[in-house]
Amino acid sequence: MRADRVFAYGATAGLLGDLLLGDPRRGHPVAAFGRAAGAVERVLWRDHRGRGALHTVVCAGGAVALGAMAARAVRTSTAASVALTAAATWAVVGGTSLAREARAVGRALEAGDVEGARARLPHLCGRDPQALDADGIARAVVESVAENTSDAVVGALVWGAVGGVPGLLGFRAVNTLDAMVGHRSPRYLRYGWASARLDDVAGWPGARLTAVLAAVAGDDPRGAVRAWRADAARHPSPNAGPVEASFAGALGVRLGGTLSYAGRVEHRPVLNGGEGRAVRVADIDRAVRLSRRVGWLALGVSAAARLLMKGRTS
């Protein structure tokens, strides 16, 4: 069986596995990678960009090399190659966990349990929940669903189409490193610079595809495109901007504004501010449904792109 079909069948099986099983509560491969990356950090850390770059190369390069060795070991068996691709896809995508956590916060808000929603929010994003009221929590959830649709689903599928199992594992490694050391804290401002920049590069194609597919699959395609064109570039993140703006337009809501991370207040531009309304609790479930549609469309686009790439090189 050709490699393009191996990816298509394996990625479909992996996405179905995520839909049916979600993430394991213990022993998740991404958590194991995080522990390994933490051990490397303890050895290498210095307040220096070069040390941080070495950390990125060791961890992300190790994930890619592991994927390449595994793919090479099963290359003579079609069934094993499909199974490996399915397992890698299941390990790196996180759409079901994203939906589960978002809806858990939504249920708490629907029940009027704002404290319960605040307690649950850190499972989904890094916002300071104590600084948010019910409307702010709902907005944070919708923004997190939008951004993580790109980071936890679409971006992985894009790189899987490009590089197979090594691409899947490499993308998740880069994204995980950014979450661990890529933020602007005093400890990681220099050490995490390489991880943050590499994540920007790796996330670029997936973010644009997510924005396009949100416009295609959303309730207001024209609104999504309009918000993307008008507001995406104003967002401080080159990848979150297009995704959140397109989701805002597709859902007809306003995203962005003032937020707080670990006591640090940021005043971000409002996305879709001229056309959208304030986020409501019911919009959480709408965002989750849109995220699901985008994920499955991304699978189709990625499989088709893999088929075209292989067709041109054969």
Layout: helices, strands, pairs:
Layout (H helix, E strand, L loop, with lengths): L2 H19 L7 H16 L4 H25 L4 H15 L2 H16 L3 H7 L13 H48 L11 H25 L3 H11 L8 H12 L3 E7 L2 E8 L10 H32 L1
Antiparallel strand pairs: 1-2
Describe this structure in words.
- The protein is globular, with a radius of gyration of 19 Å.
- The protein is mainly alpha-helical and 314 residues long.
- Helix 7 packs antiparallel against helix 10 (240-251).
- The protein has helices at 3-21, 29-44, 49-73, 78-92, 95-110, 114-120, 134-181, 193-217, 221-231, 240-251, 282-313, and strands at residues 255-261, 264-271.
- The longest helix is centred in the middle third of the chain and has 48 residues, at 134-181.
- The mean pLDDT is 93.
**What can be said about the biggest beta sheet?**
2 strands, antiparallel
What's the N-to-C terminus distance?
14 Å
Number of strands: 2
Task: Report the C-alpha radius of gyration, rounded.
Answer: 19 Å
- Structural class by SSE content: mainly alpha
| Fraction of residues in H or I helices | over 70%
Order of helices and strands: HHHHHHHHHHEEH
**Count of runs of 4 or more consecutive helical residues:** 11
What is the mean predicted local confidence, pLDDT? 93
Q: Could you name the ranges where pLDDT drops below 50 across 5 or more consecutive residues?
A: none
Strand content: under 5%
Coarse shape = globular
- Sheet with most strands: strand arrangement: 1-2
